[in-house]
Structure formats: C-alpha cells, structure tokens
Amino acid sequence: MRTSRLRRAAQSALRHEGASSAEVSILLTDDAHIHRLNRDYRSKDSPTDVLSFALRDAVSGAPSSQAPFLSNELLGDVVISVETALRQAEARGASLEEEVAHLGVHGILHLLGYTDDTDEGAAEMRVREELVLAAIDANN
Predict the structure, then answer these.
(1) What's the pLDDT band for 73 if we cut at 50, 70, 90?
(2) Which of 80, 97, 98, 128 has its CA 20 to 30 A from that of 139?
(3) Beta carbons within 8 Å of 45's beta carbon, 6+ residues apart
C-alpha cells in the first residue's frame, strides 16, 4: 500500500486546524494488534479501525482549541488497522489508500480535541474530514 495519500491528508488536517508545525505519529497495523490496544486502553474487547492516543492535554493542561501549538509539538499517536480499513473500503467502494487517509484524518482530529461521542460532535468531525479530504483531492 502506498502511503503518500495518508501523508498528504495528515499534513492537510494539521494545516486546516492551525497546527501545521505539530507532529503526529501514525502506525499502520493489523486487527490483532489494534484489538489488544483497544482492549488494554479502552476496555473494548474487539478490533477497531482507528485509535488515537493524545499527548497534548498532558503537556499543556489545556484543550487543543484553546492553547497555541508549539513548533514541532508531538500531538500523539494514531493507530490504524489496515485489515479493518480494507474491509471498510471494499464495503463503500473506495480504495484502501482513500480509507486509510480518511481514518488518519479522523484520528488526527481526535488528537486535536474533537470528539464524536454525540451526534453534534460526530457531524462536526464529518464536516472537517470532508473539507480536508476534498482539499487533498483538489490539489492532485
């Protein structure tokens, strides 16, 4: 799998959110590994598509939207299951690269403090995801 689309999507998400100098670690893994992480850190005994592990709150003590970003600040880690991404891509008629890029943007938005625990939060995240992904498509 090529990761250039994921890289462009991650850079675009950070730029759109005013965090272009921040850094994010992205791990592409399998269902077994993400299952263990989901069980150990979220008490959910199943694989998932994407997990985010934010470092920002512990560093700054402030929500992402209220604190300026430091140059080269590490926001945290995004972990994506390529196996789950492939199933999801096939189900919606997308390429694996498109699905992984979408999951990467979703994970980065979580690192930046967005949540999808409510209908309103999920809708806001969807709008932001679509803006970021449309921007990388327009630049191709």
Answers:
(1) confident
(2) 80
(3) 35, 38, 39
pLDDT tens column, 86-110: 999 999 999 999 999 999 999 999 9
Helices within 43-95 (DSSP H only): 56-60, 82-92
Q: Give the E-state strand segments of the chain in sequence order.
A: 23-29, 50-54, 74-81
For residue 137, the model assigns a pLDDT of 82
- Work out the mean pLDDT of the chain and round it to a whole number: 89
Q: What's the whole-model pTM score? A: 0.89
Helix (H, G, I), strand (E, B) or coil at 138: helix
Q: In whole angstroms, what separates CA 71 from the centre of its chain? A: 20
Q: How many residues does the chain have?
A: 140
Question: What tokens appear for 22 in the block?
Answer: 């921040």
Which CATH topology does 4-138 take? Collagenase (Catalytic Domain) (3.40.390)
| Phi, psi angles (nearest 5°) of residue 21 | -90, -5
Q: CB-hemisphere CA count at 13 Å for 27? A: 13
Classified as helix, coil or strand, 53 is: strand
Cβ atoms within 10 Å, residue 120? 10
